[in-house]
Design brief:
CATH superfamily of the largest domain: Glycosyl hydrolase domain, family 43
Structural class: mainly beta
Strand content: over 45%
Distance between the termini: 39 Å
CATH class of the largest domain: Mainly Beta
Bound molecules: beta-L-arabinofuranose
Radius of gyration: 22 Å
Largest sheet: 5 strands, antiparallel
Helix content: under 10%
C-alpha cells in the first residue's frame, strides 16, 4: 500500500517520458510558429522482442512544453518505395517554405542502411518522398559495419548552405545542393572523438555545436567549431548512459527563451533498448557557452511556458501524463484516445479556465455506460463534474456529449478519470469547455 502511494505520488509529478501512449525513440526537434515539434521513430517490437521493429515515424508537438499532442504516424517506411524497412533515426528541418524530413531506412536493392528525404508544406505533413530514391546509400563509402549510413542531421547556415552529417562509427558529412535532396563534392569525415552515431549540428551564438552519441552503451558528447565543417574541439559530455537503454539519441533546441535537451531512455513500463521513450530536460547554457553535464529526471519540464485554452477544441491526445490508455490512428490520419479502461486517466497541465467554465463537451464513441470524472489538481482531486457516457452504438460510432461542471476559475491541472465496468469503456477524439 505504501509502495502504491509512493508510486502514485511519483507519477502525479512525472513528466518524463513525455509520451506514455506509444514507445518513441530517436527524437529530433523543430520549432516553428511558436510550437515545439518532435519527430520520433516508433518502437513497435513485441513485448519480448529483442531487436528494433520500427515501421513509422510519428510527430508530437507542444506550445507549453508540458502538454504534448500526438499528430500520429505522419511518415512510414512504405512511403519510400525503394526502402525495405527500419524507420530509424530522422530529422525534419524547415527551409524556404518547405519541411524536409531526412530519415534512415534499409535499402531494398543495395542492402545496408540509406538516407532518404520526404517533403511537405506543413510541419505535420502530408509528407511525400522528395526524390524517389536515396540521397545516401551504403555503396558510396567503404564498408565499416552494418549501419554505416544512419542518423542524418541537416543544418542550414546563415549563408543558405545546407550541411548533412550522419553515420555510425564514423561521422560523415556533405554539402547539400539547393534542392536539399542531392549533394555536391566528396563525402567527408569529421574527426570527433568518441563518435558512435546520432549527430546533431546547430549554431549557437555564432559557434557551431556538434553533439552525438558515443558507441553503445551510449553517452552524449559534444564538440564546437568556428566552422560548420570543423576542425572540431571536444568540449565534453552532456549525458551519461541513460536508464534501461544502451542507445541514446539527442536534440538540443531553444524555445520561448529556454533551452531543452531531448533524448530517449527505457523507463516507461515494459521499456528497454527496443521499447524506448522520449524525455525532455530543461537546462541553461553556461555563461561561456558550454553545455553542462545534465541529469535525467522523472519530473522533466517543471515549469510550463504557456497555458492551455480549454475553450477551444482540444484534441484528446493532448496530455501531460496518462495511465492505462493508448492513442489510436484512424484511416484518415487522425488520432484519438483509445484503450480506456476503468481507472485510467489523462492529466492536462496549466489549463487556464479564466473566469470560469460551466459546461464540458466531448466527442466520444462507446458501446457501454461509463463516467468521465472531471477533477482538478490530482487523480483524487476535487470533482467539478461527472460526464455520463452512454452507448453511442459502438466504439466507432462518434457522438457529442456534454455535462454541467461546477464553476472553476484560473489556471488548474485538469484530470479526466474514467470509471466504468469491465472492458474498453470509450474512445475520445476531442473535448472543450464552455
Ligand atoms: O533506433 C534505431 C537506431 O538506434 C538509431 O538510428 C540510432 O540513433 C539508435 O538510437
Amino acid at each position: 500500500m505504501v509502495l502504491l502511494l509512493v508510486g502514485l505520488l511519483c507519477n502525479s509529478q512525472a513528466q518524463n517520458p513525455i509520451v506514455q501512449t506509444n514507445y518513441t525513440a530517436d527524437v529530433a526537434s523543430l520549432v516553428y510558429n511558436n510550437r515545439f515539434y518532435i519527430y520520433v521513430g516508433r518502437d513497435q517490437a513485441s513485448p519480448t522482442g529483442r531487436w528494433f521493429n520500427m515501421r513509422e515515424w510519428r510527430i508530437y508537438s507542444s506550445t507549453d512544453m508540458v502538454n504534448w499532442t500526438d499528430h500520429g504516424p505522419k511518415l512510414k517506411v512504405t512511403d519510400f518505395k525503394w526502402a525495405s524497412g527500419d524507420a530509424w533515426a530522422s530529422q525534419c528541418i524547415y527551409h524556404k517554405g518547405k519541411f524536409y524530413w531526412y530519415v534512415s531506412v534499409s535499402h531494398k536493392e543495395k542492402g545496408g542502411k540509406a538516407i532518404g528525404v520526404a517533403v511537405s508544406d506543413s510541419p505535420t505533413g502530408p509528407f511525400v518522398d522528395a526524390k524517389g530514391s536515396a540521397i545516401i546509400t551504403t555503396d558510396m563509402t567503404p564498408k565499416q559495419g552494418d549501419f554505416d549510413d544512419i542518423d542524418p542531421t541537416v543544418f542550414v547556415d546563415d549563408d543558405g548552405q545546407a550541411y548533412m552529417y550522419w553515420g555510425n562509427g564514423k561521422c560523415k558529412y556533405v554539402k547539400l545542393n539547393e534542392d536539399m535532396i542531392s549533394f555536391s563534392g566528396e563525402i567527408q569525415y569529421a574527426n570527433v572523438p568518441k563518435f558512435g552515431e546520432a549527430p546533431w549540428l546547430q549554431k549557437i551564438n555564432g559557434k557551431y555545436y556538434l553533439s552525438y552519441s558515443s558507441s553503445s552503451p551510449s553517452t552524449i558528447e559534444y564538440c564546437t567549431s568556428s566552422s560548420p565543417v570543423g576542425p572540431w574541439d571536444y568540449r565534453g559530455r552532456i549525458l551519461n548512459i541513460v536508464e534501461n537503454c544502451p542507445t541514446s539519441h539527442q536534440a538540443i533546441t531553444d524555445f520561448k527563451g529556454k533551452w531543452y535537451f531531448v533524448y530517449h531512455n527505457g523507463t516507461l513500463p515494459g521499456g528497454n533498448g527496443f521499447h524506448r521513450s522520449v524525455c525532455i530536460e530543461e537546462f541553461s547554457l553556461n555563461p561561456d557557452g558550454t553545455i553542462p553535464l545534465l541529469s535525467t529526471t522523472k519530473e522533466g519540464v517543471k515549469t510550463s511556458v504557456g497555458n492551455l485554452n480549454p475553450y477551444e477544441r482540444v484534441e484528446a491526445e493532448t496530455m501531460a501524463w496518462s495511465e492505462g490508455l493508448t492513442a489510436a490512428d484512424d484511416q484518415n490520419g487522425g488520432v484519438y484516445v483509445s484503450g480506456i479502461n476503468n481507472g485510467d486517466y489523462i492529466k492536462i497541465r496549466n489549463v487556464d479556465f479564466g473566469k470560469g467554465a460551466k459546461q464540458f463537451i466531448a466527442y466520444v464513441a462507446s458501446s457501454s455506460k461509463s463516467d468521465i470524472e472531471i477533477r482538478i489538481g490530482g487523480v483524487d482531486g476535487k470533482i467539478i463534474g461527472i460526464c455520463k457516457v452512454n452507448s453511442t452504438g459502438g466504439l466507432d460510432k462518434w457522438s457529442t456529449i456534454n455535462s454541467k461542471v461546477k464553476k472553476i476559475k484560473g489556471v488548474q491541472d485538469l484530470y479526466f478519470v474514467f470509471k466504468g465496468g469491465e472492458g474498453e469503456l470509450l474512445n475520445i477524439d476531442w473535448w472543450r469547455f464552455q
